[in-house]
Amino acid sequence: MKKILLVNASRYFIAEGKSLLDRKDFQVFMASSVMQALQIHRQERVNLIVTDLHLPEMGGDVLCSRVRQETDVRGVSIILICHDVPDDLDRAARSGANVCLKKPFAPKTLLDQVEKLLAICIRRGYRVLLRAKVKGAMEDGVFFCTSQNLSVSGILIETERELKQGDGLSCSFYLPGGSHIVADGEVARVVRQPEGKHHIGVSFIDLAPEYRREIEEFIADNIAAEEAAELHRGSVVTLPGALSAPR
Q1: How far is residue 164 CA from its own chain's centroid?
Q2: 69 CB contacts (<8 Å, ≥6 apart)?
């Protein structure tokens, strides 16, 4: 489960990002101050912090600096939101945040960065976090889901969203390493799962050559990593009596 900490930043997710925060495999924490955010992060070891620069008592740049100074919790990704003015930009540049977003920005800009920083690979199944939009639908057609498998021909996703065969989708996701893939697709198969979830098979339509190459390289790298791990496991041998207590 991925953990996101919003520090005085929940308002940026009200529209398009609500489906991300409502996902059952994400846990979202809220904080209004630096000290509260530090306490939550120390306890929960969140994966991503989204914070305003301007906070009560101490700024978001102080939060970033404090986090980076603590060895046990410094590995978290941080998005810092500030105004497009020299003083704010200078503070942001010295903060240690991964990404600085300047107000005003489109919701999609924030969500792109969230997707990119949370993109992960689980080798078996080649899973990625994916944002999809039902083609022809209004804003509520946008939803987040997790892929169960990925190939150059299509993607298998798990979602609570009800879709039907033939529905068109616009898909957007980041491969681990930062490659951004954008593809149109069509629902080819729908399988109902327990607890109201659905496995949706999506066939890509006219996948761009550069995206095809990125996906092929991603899958090849993961297959090689699996084979190397399997070889390593096979090379570990327990000798007879090695675990016996000495006499």
Answers
A1: 26
A2: none
Query: Which CATH architecture fits 2-118?
Result: 3-Layer(aba) Sandwich (3.40)
- Contact (CB, 8 A) for 116 and 174: yes
What is the value of pTM for the model shown?
Answer: 0.66
| 246: Cα within 13 Å, side-chain hemisphere | 0
Q: Specify whether the CB–CB gap between 95 and 102 falls below 8 A.
A: no
Amino acid occupying residue 142? V
Q: What is the DSSP letter of 177?
A: T
Q: What digits encode the pLDDT tens for the residues 101-135?
A: 999 888 888 888 888 888 754 344 467 788 888 98
Which sequence spans correspond to the domains of the chain?
Answer: 2-118, 129-232
Question: How far apart are the C-alpha atoms of 118 and 146, rounded to whole Å?
Answer: 12
CATH topology of domain 129-232: Thrombin, subunit H (2.40.10)
Tallying the residues shown for the chain, one arrives at: 247
**CA 12 to the chain's CA centroid:** 17
Q: With 0-12 CB in 10 A as exposed, 13-18 as middle and 19+ as buried, what is 106? A: exposed
